[in-house]
Amino acid sequence: MRAICLLMLGLTAMAVAQSAFAHKPSDSYLIVHADSSDDVMSGQWDIALRDLEMALQLDADHDGAITWGEVRTRKTDLFAYAFAHLGVEAQGHACRLTPIDLLVDDHSDGAYAVLRFRVECAQPAESLAIRYSLLFDIDPSHRGLLRLDTASGTQSAVFSPEQAQQTFALRGNSGWATFLQFVGDGIHHIWIGYDHMLFLISLLLPSVLVRREEHWIPVGTLRSALSSVLAIVTAFTVSHSITLTLSVLGVISLPSRLVESGIALSVLLAALNNLWPWVTRRLWLLAFGFGLVHGFGFASVLADLGLPQGALVLSLAGFNIGVEIGQLSVVLLVVPTIFLLRKSQFYRPWILAMGSSGIAIVAGIWLISRALGFGLN
What we know:
The protein is of the alpha+beta class. The protein has 2 domains: 2-23 and 193-372; 27-173, no CATH class. The protein is built from 11 helices and 12 strands. The strands form 3 sheets. A 6-stranded mixed beta sheet has the order 5-6-2-1-8-9, with helices on both faces. Strand 3 and strand 4 form a beta hairpin. Helix 1 (2-19) runs parallel beside helix 11, helix 5 (175-192) crosses helix 10 (309-341) and helix 7 (222-248) runs antiparallel to helix 10 (309-341).
């Protein structure tokens, strides 16, 4: 039992340590227009300046801010680096990628370099094979989000180290394939979305205890714990699904700094509630309220890609289901373990108290850095 407890503490410490340095998943947004009969296609590739800084050191004066002048002077290097990690083939023959223009644009999570280019193939393409490897050698969690516009509709895909090359038919496309792609991306985002995960864990830690006379008492049965967990998870799922949908569809839009600060605040308050309980019953209400804020965070990935309405429905559904699968995997890992540990002498002072303290410290750092615009995550 002690070994299991130490393992839990180790995993908690690792999660807290990693989360202190990472928040917004690294994504780039690649759009290819192949919707005409011409052999020449156009493309646009939005890559975060913070990611390019890791690869190319764009900040020439090392003042912590990347200016347009610093980006512009590295235009040739930037295109060379990007195209070394992107390849397009038609009918087994490589297509030529030709730079057109370089711009800078703001996304929900910061400034991005916008690379515009032509894709020239030797013959009309029935299908395209796209190879993507940007940043995989530096950050394996990086993902490339593709929107491919064809004469028969829009296709979407997610590139990862495991799926670095994919083939797309230009006449006819599989909605099922798009759906599955975004299910996988939803799972990926909940697993590397440390703030979302730590918020959920903060709510789960007291689920195997009940508060009586200002003391935490272990629950008697697993059924009692699962009843609390079901209410929490359901409330969080429903609430973030609402705002995820409304945000992606453009019904509601909030500033990124406000959303990210609100997410950090939710993690902080959930952790502090475990240390100084003021909400001891109906934790699902806390999960529902803050889940509304987390939904806006989930929405940034799909909103930045700018999918047309038809593809947006499938992508939104797949991504949301993927988030729920990832969330369920966290629950299935955490709840049985903490239920076994709930009566141990280590659980309340170490797992609950120390774990929540560590989460609160990290969330406090997040809140300050995001509210003030510091680049700590």
